[in-house]
Amino acid sequence: MRQIITHFIDDDLYKFTMCCAVIENFPRAQVKYRFNDRNNTVYPSGFAEELMRQVALLETLTITEEEIAFMRYRCRYIPAWFYNFLRGFRYSRHWVKASQNEEGHLLVEFEGCWSNTILLEVKVLAIISELYYEMTGQAAEFDFAGYYDKSHEKAKRLLEAGCTFSDMGTRRRASLKAQDLTIGAMAECQRSRSMPGCFMGTSNVYFAMKYDLTPIGTMAHEFISAIAGMYGPQMANHIAMERWAQTYRGALGIFLYDTYGWQIFNLNFSEDYANMFKGLRVDSGDNFEQLDLIISKYESLKIDPTTKQVVFSNGLNVDKALEIQEYAKGKCIPSFGIGTHFTNDFDGIKPMNIVIKLTDVKITESWPFYCQTCKISEDKGKHTGDAELIKCFKRLIHLDNE
User: Which helix (H) or strand (E) segment is 214 a member of?
Assistant: First the structure.
């Protein structure tokens, strides 16, 4: 099997921005991650062994000076010292364990220094997704001939409706080629005609460089859930906003608020942070209900919500984005991050529903024990973590038990 990941920056921007924030704020933190397949997929025999071979091949990747120059030009908020860290960064297979049980289900875990293992998630998910289709023979069914036109039409519909949107499809892409065709088609559609919408770019730094686009992204739930494991969930959002603001000085100002639901975030989102951050990202729950809560919060703080950006990224497709755009118009500055629907939308192919979540954390390697953490989604079926810990966290933040 050929090497699947061949470029160091074939990764989402948010992994780099979070890595930088971790080094600056939690340089000695140690973590554990666990893979979760929400479709309970049975993987082909030998899949785990090939996955570990692909992980070992990551050790051959190094960042190039061309890649650094691009990131320094497009990502001016990232401090210069971080690129010295990336120059010396090397992946290690020893951070990863992968196996399959008797039924063929896949088990994957990471463990190590947070600033190292944080750069594994997206690459490993992209490997798993592409490798699955290759080993099951489904990759031979991909209609690449029509995928460019299909992606171009999606972009055209969004642009004509006035939508501002970006690609966020690296983690569950059908293949590198599928994402390449998607971004190439959307970039061409944006540049070839004048329409009220805007294709902002892609979360994938490699493709942003290839097509001279802006890399898009800020943070993931991981940042807040790790802080919750170290300090507790009650003030995790507050601490995350404080540390993020100290690191990026006003840049990267879209905050992902739903790690422990709206209720506790609402208490943490004081007027100073509401003014400081450019907007919020909706990644779970009912998009319309969440937007109404956000609008009401800004209005209660005497902040004009039409000046604030709201990024929608909760399992979107073009039709859903158009519906939200119509509802949100005039209420805020809406934008959309669309993932699997862009990069894994072949007829007859079932997209994977896979995630890797941080499960345990300790603030320094000298601690003899880890503290568990979890994520409590607005979508009740998407809670991640130990069931008893989720109940404990819900009691701590006064959420009604389900």
Answer: strand 214-215
Task: Give Cα 6 to chain centroid, integer Å.
Answer: 20
Please tell me the distance from the alpha carbon of residue 298 to that of residue 232, in angstroms, as a whole number.
26
Strands ordered across the beta sheet of 30-37: 96-100, 106-113, 30-37, 354-362, 371-372
Backbone angles phi, psi at 113, to 5 degrees: -65, 135
**Strand 309-312, strand 30-37: pairing:** unpaired
How far apart CA 230 and CA 62 sit, in angstroms, is: 32
Q: Which amino acid is at 392?
A: C
* Strand ranges, E, within 240-307: 254-256, 279-282
pLDDT per residue as tens digits for the range 330-384:
999 999 999 999 999 999 999 999 999 999 999 999 999 999 999 998 987 778 8
Count of other CB atoms within 10 angstroms of residue 68:
18
| Residue 74: closest CA among 164, 152, 9, 168 | 9
Q: Are 165 and 158 in contact (CB under 8 A)?
A: yes
CA pair distance 360, 370, nearest whole angstrom:
6
pTM tops 0.85, yes or no: yes
Strands (E) located in 157-292: 164-167, 198-202, 214-215, 254-256, 279-282
Per the DSSP assignment, residues forming a β-bridge with 112 are 31
Find, among 133, 92, 87, 128, the residue nearest to 110 by Cα.
Answer: 92
The tens digit of pLDDT for each residue in 196-252 reads 999 999 999 999 999 999 999 999 999 999 999 999 999 999 999 999 999 999 999
Q: What is the per-residue DSSP string for 292-303?
A: HHHHHHHHHTT-
Rounded Cα gap, residues 290 and 321, in angstroms: 15
Please tell me what DSSP assigns to residue 141: G
Q: Are 33 and 110 in contact (CB under 8 A)?
A: yes
